[in-house]
Amino acid sequence: MIDSLINKDIELLIYLNNLGSPQWDGIWLFISNKYSAIPLYFLLLYFTYKQFGLKKTFVTVLFVVLIILASDQTSNLFKYGFKRLRPCHNENISHLIRLVGGRCGGLYGYFSAHAANSMAIGVFFGLLLKRKINYLFPILILWALVVSYSRIYLGVHYPLDVFTGMLIGLIYASLFYAVFKVFLKKFMN
Fold first, then answer.
1. pLDDT tens-digit profile of 171-188?
2. DSSP reduced 3-state for 68
């Protein structure tokens, strides 16, 4: 059963990755670049400040840092625990995929930290700001999905790596948001 799942994962990667074309490569490289979302982060901080003020915004930043730290460390634990080669390092399929940008990343790729972090940020801020900006949550989820897909497009992660990363990000965001609410109620009111 695991072998069948892995084979389907490889087939889906090859299919999705080969849908790309050189005219779109630059856009997907930009989307996947961790610095491209900086304006979004500033906008989210601005919305948070407008809704909660300076002290709660500072606490929000602290919680976001903790979410990313937890997500990244869990990703490293999985990568070196499972030791699943990234598709661009897998000699059996590397010739079948488009490696966009010429950079593959580390040797192992299960699961995608990009997917986990973008989903965690999207869900956390979506939950945080949903009362004041109700349309923001779906926009942030769409952004996280696009960032996650970019990893498949670029040829550096399998779909299962991306799906697992998004799931981990969702779980961490939900847990940290619950703790955040308790923290605010106990220490900030």
1. 999 999 999 999 988 887
2. helix
Q: Quick one: CA dihedral 118, 135, 53, 177, positive or negative?
A: negative
- Taking alpha carbons only, the member of 90, 154, 142, 134 closest to residue 118 is 142
pTM (two decimals): 0.91
Q: CA of 57: how far to CAs of 28, 34, 35, 107, 128, in Å? A: 31, 22, 21, 37, 11
Domains and CATH numbers, the chain: 2-187 (1.20.144)
3 state SS of 189: coil
DSSP 3-state assignment of 100? Answer: coil
How many Cα neighbours within 13 Å face the side chain of 103? Answer: 8
Ranges of H-type helices in the chain: 2-17, 22-32, 38-52, 54-82, 113-129, 136-153, 159-187
| Strand, helix or coil for residue 85 | strand
pLDDT tens sequence across 97-140:
999 988 888 888 888 999 999 999 999 999 999 988 989 999 99
The Cα 122–Cα 125 span in angstroms is 6
- Give the C-alpha separation, 61 to 65, whole Å: 6
Whether 162 and 115 have beta carbons less than 8 Å apart is answered as: yes
Preceding amide of 111 cis, omega within 30: yes
